[in-house]
Amino acid sequence: MKIKEVGEFGLIERIKTKLAFPHQDIIKGIGDDACAIETQKGRLLLSTIDALIEDVHFDLRFTSAYNLGKKSLAVNISDIAAMGGTPRFFLVSLGIPSKISVEFIDEFVTGLHETANSFQTYVVGGDTSFSPEKLNINITLLGEAFPSDVIYRDNAHVGDQVFVTGTLGDSALGLEILMNRKGLSRVEERFKDLVERHCNPTPRVAEGRLIAENRIASAMIDISDGIISDLGHICEQSKVGAKIWLDKLPTSEAFQKHSHEFTDRPMDLALGGGEDYELLFTVDRGNVDLLNRMKNRFKTKVTHIGEVVEPNEGIAVLDNCGKRYVVGKKGFDHFL
């Protein structure tokens, strides 16, 4: 059987059934943005790992070494943010091909350090090795949280409302622009903000902490693979469905102005493009007023985009006439 026949998440499930065994200190194992382990009473260790592989996750024509360093750690920090935790320490492993210069690594580390410094996160170790062809980056990030603050994916309920931070689709549009222009150096100034959203995402740690500390969300995830795919993880683990209102999806002015230059279906980028690294979360109706009162404390806007429904309804995107919008791309899968 080929891996593409089961897909990325089917493969993860097969590994999980053979490898993941219960332990009294494992509060949450495989299947969430990070695992949660009780290392001492009243405190959870959150752990996450991401592999970034050249020509799979990044293209060196489209990013600088500096931005690659920044993004490599940022995507891990976003996982901790999605659990409502605080990032603390990380380890970095590099597989380096001969084409990569010392100066490239210097710039990469500078970017890595800037993200670490911004979020008061500290490197504690790692490894380096030769890679025969492609640059490989692996980062393991450790965070922490109080047990009562951690937000998982599996607690959404029918009737909960669906919210998202920030705007959607900028990163995917930025990538479209980079591919169209065939390189970072060829991108016009008017597209720089969109390209920046792709190359230099902002993890929503402060927002995640606010949501967690005030017990606002019933379930939460960061948007890495696309809102439809990532909402699907919440729905699958919570055994619910969801409906999303297409006309409520938040997009930036730059997205609205330029998206039609690169695609006939711009909302597919917002729904399935991925790498937004915004927080997608569900809120019990009783907590919606609390969230609305707190919105001015968030560093970015928060938008009400849908509702959790019965599981048999699946995930539906509805236009302003209540008709189903057929999504062309539902998200990223490494093996499909």
CATH superfamily of the largest domain: PurM-like C-terminal domain
Helical content class: 25-40%
Based on secondary structure, the structural category is alpha+beta
Overall average residue pLDDT: 92
Shape: globular
The total domain count is 2
Report what the structure shows:
It is a single chain. This protein is of the alpha+beta class. The protein folds into two domains: 3-145, PurM-like, N-terminal domain (60s Ribosomal Protein L30, Chain: A, 2-Layer Sandwich); 161-318, Phosphoribosyl-aminoimidazole Synthetase, Chain A, domain 2. Helices cover 34% and strands 25% of the residues. Strands 1-2-3-6-4-5 form a six-stranded mixed β-sheet, covered by helices on one side. Strand 4 (86-96), helix 3 (102-118) and strand 5 form a beta-alpha-beta unit. The longest helix is centred in the N-terminal third of the chain and has 18 residues, at 65-82. The protein is globular. The model has no long low-confidence stretch (mean pLDDT 92).
List keywords for this structure.
60s Ribosomal Protein L30, Chain: A; Phosphoribosyl-aminoimidazole Synthetase, Chain A, domain 2; 10 helices; alpha+beta; 6-stranded mixed sheet; 34% helix; 336 residues
